[in-house]
Amino acid sequence: MTWHVRAACAEDLPALPEIERAAATLFPPERIPDPDEVHGVEELAGYLEDGLLWVAADSRALMGYVMARELDGALHVYELAVEPRFGRQGIGTALMRRAVAEGELRRLPRVTLTTFEDLPWNAPFYHRLGFRVQDADALTDPLRRLLEGERAAGMTHRVAMCLDLEP
């Protein structure tokens, strides 16, 4: 099966919440507040307008997506979701590499994200891509607020991670 990563288009948006919902089934139910609470089409359209939404697709289906925004001088990845039936094919890696490339194109100093520190397809996955866990005292205020919001929603074992980009 040949697939590629490309910029998302408006026609892709209706399928993305379903990809995110399917990806959420991989998480232990007690670890995420509501697996049906996903990014809606209107919210996704904002990322599309900013040029910060990419999909992995083959000729028949969308397989995953990544969305990001500039946050406190960095590119912050808000969501990476791969449809489970397409897992373990390098799709998540390719999507993250595209987001990192965008950070480089925008000449940003780093890419950040928040994730579960203990699930193998979360922090250990990002670590293999070069991300490192940020110490609590090194967090920017926006990242600290994101983590606090996630924890307040009942998400445990969350960390912020960072990939420094070449100047």
Question: What characteristics describe this protein?
Answer:
7 strands, single chain, seven-stranded mixed sheet, 31% helix, globular, 5 helices, 167 residues, alpha+beta, Aminopeptidase
Gap between N and C termini? 36 Å
Spatially, the strands of the biggest sheet line up as 1-2-3-4-5-7-6
Helix/strand-derived category reads alpha+beta
pLDDT average, as an integer?
A: 93
Q: What is the helix tally? A: 5
What is the helical fraction, as a range of percent?
A: 25-40%
Low-confidence segments: none
Beta-strand share of residues: 25-35%
Q: For the report, how would you describe the main beta sheet?
A: 7 strands, mixed
CATH superfamily: Gcn5-related N-acetyltransferase (GNAT)
Highest-level CATH class: Alpha Beta
Morphology call: globular
* Order of helical and strand elements: EHHEEEHEHEHE
Radius of gyration: 15 Å
Number of strands: 7
Write the layout of secondary structure elements.
Elements: E1 4-7, H1 16-24, H2 41-49, E2 53-57, E3 62-71, E4 74-82, H3 91-105, E5 110-116, H4 123-128, E6 132-133, H5 141-152, E7 158-164
Parallel strand pairs: 4-5
Antiparallel strand pairs: 1-2, 2-3, 3-4, 5-7, 6-7
What does this 3D model show about the protein?
This protein has 167 residues and is an alpha+beta fold. It has a single domain (4-164), classed as Aminopeptidase. Helix content is 31%, strand content 26%. It has 5 helices and 7 strands. It has a 7-stranded mixed β-sheet, with helices on both faces. The longest helix has 15 residues, at 91-105. The mean pLDDT is 93.
